[in-house]
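Practice problem: predict the structure.
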Amino acid sequence: MTEHGEQLPEEVLALIFCYLPLPDRAAAARVCRAWAAAATCSAVWHDVNISCDSELESLLSLYLSSCLDHVRNLGLQFEPSREPSRRKVKELLTRLAGRTPGLRRLRLECRGEKPLFDAGRDVLDAVHAVCRDTRALRHLNLRRLPFTLDDALVLQVARGCPELRSLFLNNDTLVGSIGPGSVLTLLEACPHLHALGLHLASLSRPALETLAAPDREPFELLVLRGACPEDARAPPLPDEAWAALRRRHPGLVVELELEPALSGESVTRVLQPAVPVAALRFCLSGDTVGPLRFASRHYAATLRTLEVRAAASAQLDAALEELAARCAGLHEVHCFCLVRPSVLGAFREHCPRLRSYTLRHTPAPHPWRPTLVA
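Answer:
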């Protein structure tokens, strides 16, 4: 503990203030000049998470404005059903647009219910402004926005963010409005992109070929979500195109999220043998056993995470046990229906790298919590 009259170095104070909630940072800045300097220095504001439902009540002020130039990585949470929360997120994004040197990473997350028929145009317009005026943006994550994203947004990102490294558009929407053409334009305009999240309908063979080009920088992560009618109607991507992409980027990881909107035929089109699937999440209205058996045969070398939401059955248990025996590299397995005890035994026996699982054989209240492997 410091003696009376002693002052901690500014860098130590800044390190402490990094862990404070925003209202506490604002309060610390009013204590004295030394604390004000530490609370407003760039190190404190480099990485910021802001909840627009409460924390900004007194923070959109001279204090916050003076710190926005230091923000590089920003996470914003808001409630779309509350007008004050929406207004704050729009105002903050508008203030951040065009700052120099500006944002590097932006993640938006909606909490609570989205009002019926809400298109989110006001929030999306603010995102457009950031993408138009923040050329240094490298990471944009919109997967937690419940609004329908469209071609105009993707093309704006392509025009305004040439340094982009990651973009996640695989959000929970009932309509897929991002066409393959705009994604292809994005890939051509952003040569440094190494992680991409899309709905199935937004991906095309030309996009895979562009990613597999000899001069393309290493591409690391592709997250594909099938959750709307457009995804169910998407044409199949040939296995040879996936094989070429995998040869060009041997470290590529693919995550598949397949929802009830996909029919059994659609799932069969998606599950190509050459796709290097590392995470597979099933919540299907039809057959789940067939896709599980396919995964155990073709993704044994790459599969690390499995999540299944299905009706309990002896056939499902058998498919899970077969998968456990083949996929020794699994880190996580979560099945949200009751399974027989032998299923858990199979994963514990055959998967030495297993870190967590949800495999219950007796009823329990929801939500089910995963079990960590010691």
